[in-house]
Amino acid sequence: MWFVYVAVGLVLLTAGGLYTRRRIAAALTELGLSDRAVRVVRWAIGWLLFGFPLLAIVTIAVSLSLGWATMPRFDGAIAGWLLGVPFLWAVLIVFQSLGWLLALEVVHVIARRRIGAARAARLRGLGVLAVVAVFAVYTPARFLAERGDLRVRRHQVGVAAPTTPVPFRIAFVADVQQDAHLDAAQARAVYATINASQPDLILSGGDWINSGPDHIASAAATAGMLTSRLGTFSVRGDHEHFAYFDRHRSVAEVEQALGRHGVALLDNEVRWFEHQRKRIAIVFLNYNYIQRADQATVARLLAGVAGADYTIAVTHQLDRALAAQLVDQVDLILAAHTHGGQINPVIGLWHVNLAGLETEFVDGRYQRGRSTIIVTAGIGYSIIPIRYASPGSVELIELRL
């Protein structure tokens, strides 16, 4: 499904980008900028909007045709800041400006009848430049203001009248995606916060790396500093498959590296834990863009935990299909993947979470029947090192039984 979103996004980017570029060029012409200067601006806008995706598509095609084990990547510090961030900045300016620019077209049609074509065109030009300038400043300002923000969210779940005097403490973390932008030092700082809560158990929704094999060993070694009474257990995320073109090799290397540091990467398994004579069953589902447990597998795993005092399902992704199987079958569902949207543009006057197009479970806590659902916003970045109106989070859970 992800490639459908990418394809739709590229179509919208092309149409919206060309329209916005035309409007900016016309506005500059109306304000007296020379034809040569306008051409330079048009070229610069075109490069910002289309250069990065074209370069990515070409390098992927070349690497596949040459049989390389890994693709050339753009998640390094230089490529990220010189290519990825300017591209995202330009895309956000376009998409956030588009509605206002279309509104200016309507105003222009009305104004030209009242004040004449020349004055109306000039006012439209000033309006276009004002809208673009506002978003050109607001967008990076919000990037910088929120960079590094991390919410430590505390949840109480369990029965209404607990019989055990001490809660079972769970830390849930996901989407660290350790790379050049969220490095080992930053990950260690997050893990230190988790360790300070003294959890009995640490669970993860996966995505320990971003892409490529360069950070597998480092991410695993850093994850090894997570400490709890019962250990650290994780499901697979999408990005565990992105170290190599060979996805099996990718997952195997990540699994082996994590295992050497005491982190278990599980694949459609059930683990049992005991807390003050209460039995807790946790279903670890392999459910992400690359591999998804089928309905029969999910049903089989759920049947195996029927006798537990409390049941938990951990998954990387939680879409409507999986939620339909889990709701009212387990007590607690822990999910990740969305990054809280990661990039939540301003549509009109409000930031809108585009991840809501994929799932209703985007960020935070939900209640569906007897099932409590907690979706973490994660910590790191996917592809481009920016979170926009989407601070990260870790979840500290007190389970009362």
Textual characterization of the structure:
By secondary structure, the protein is of the alpha/beta class. It has two domains: 2-146, no CATH class; 152-400, 4-Layer Sandwich (Purple Acid Phosphatase, chain A, domain 2). Helices cover 45% and strands 18% of the residues. It is built from nine helices and 14 strands. The chain has helices at residues 2-30, 35-65, 77-115, 117-146, 184-196, 216-223, 247-260, 295-303, 320-326, and strands at residues 150-158, 168-173, 201-204, 232-234, 263-265, 269-275, 278-284, 310-314, 332-335, 346-347, 350-351, 364-368, 371-375, 392-400. The strands form three sheets. It has a six-stranded mixed sheet. A six-stranded mixed sheet has the order 6-7-8-9-13-12, with no helix packed on it. Strands 10-11 form a two-stranded antiparallel ribbon. Strand 8 (310-314), helix 9 and strand 9 (332-335) form a beta-alpha-beta unit. The radius of gyration is 24 Å and the shape is elongated. The chain starts with a helix and ends with a strand. The relative contact order is 0.13. The model has no long low-confidence stretch (mean pLDDT 92).
SSE layout:
Blueprint (H helix, E strand, L loop, with lengths): L1 H29 L4 H31 L11 H39 L1 H30 L3 E9 L9 E6 L10 H13 L4 E4 L11 H8 L8 E3 L12 H14 L2 E3 L3 E7 L2 E7 L10 H9 L6 E5 L5 H7 L5 E4 L10 E2 L2 E2 L12 E5 L2 E5 L16 E9 L1
Parallel strand pairs: 1-14, 2-3, 3-4, 4-5, 7-8, 8-9, 9-13
Antiparallel strand pairs: 2-14, 6-7, 10-11, 12-13
Helix pairs in contact: 1-2, 1-3, 1-4, 2-3, 3-4, 5-6, 6-7
